[in-house]
Write a structure and sequence with these properties.
- The protein has 6 helices and 7 strands.
- It is α/β, with parallel strands linked by helices and about 230 residues long.
- One of its GO terms (biological process) is alkaloid metabolic process.
- Belongs to the methyltransferase superfamily.
- GO terms for molecular function: S-adenosylmethionine-dependent methyltransferase activity.
């Protein structure tokens, strides 16, 4: 199930644990919920930058199945955190027999529980070597935060249409074209002449520590498009 994040247009307190606890109780019979994209669409990006032996932090995991799908794809350790006790208890029970998945109730705004350099990658889908941030927020809303000098990140932006999006009368989009990073302006914004095929596309920000970029490139020497062979695209 997919849903656009309209948090900027309503009065829901998405930072309030009580809101999420109530929501997960009310939607307990609705099954899992994945914001934006499923792992099948994000796999080429994840596999290109993060080895299966990496220790991964999934921020704001909710009751999504992305971590489960990553384990099925060979990932060995994923620590999932969420502000909702209800969600964490639910997921702990669901995956109690899956040792690769760990669940902790935690506010992502306070990561003091973990020592520095605890993780090789951090994934934020809807909500420190590599950070994956998947969102509806375009560069005008995100780059001022992500591009702060204190983070020392090299940022690449990818834009992919919503799952199932197709322009009326047009054949399905070429998936490989989505795997090319968008050339940003000096201010980190989209070029003035850039036109999104899907006006409600999802933005994927991949942030790499500059000091570690060489190491990451050695781990992923093949072009990103080569990963498509593994999923038959």
């Amino acid at each position: 199930m997919m849903l656009r994040d309209v948090s900027c247009c309503n009065t829901y307190n998405y930072g309030d644990a009580l809101y999420w606890d109530t929501r997960y109780v009310q939607e307990a019979d609705c099954g899992s919920f994945d914001w934006y994209q499923r792992y099948s669409a994000l796999r080429p990006f994840v596999r290109h930058y993060v080895t299966t032996s990496s220790r991964v932090l999934m921020v704001g995991c909710g009751n999504a199945v992305m971590s489960e799908d990553m384990v099925k794809d060979g990932y060995e350790e994923i620590v999932n955190v969420d502000i909702s006790t209800v969600a964490i208890d639910m997921m702990r029970r669901k995956y109690e027999d899956v040792p690769q998945l760990k669940y902790l109730q935690m506010d992502a705004r306070d990561m003091s529980f973990f020592p520095d350099e605890s993780f090789d990658a951090v994934i934020d889908k809807g909500n420190d070597i590599v950070l994956y941030h998947i969102t509806y927020g375009d560069p005008t809303a995100r780059m001022s935060h992500l591009n702060r000098p204190v983070f020392n990140w090299k940022i690449e932006l990818y834009i992919i249409p919503r799952p199932g999006f197709q322009k009326p009368g047009d054949p399905p989009s070429n998936v490989k074209s989505c795997l090319e990073p968008i050339p940003l302006t000096e201010k980190g914004l989209l070029p003035a002449d850039y036109v999104m095929e899907d006006p409600d596309s999802h933005f994927i920000y991949i942030c790499k520590k500059i000091d570690d970029s060489l190491e990451l490139s050695n781990k992923s020497a093949d072009p990103l498009t080569a990963d498509l062979q593994g999923i038959g695209l």
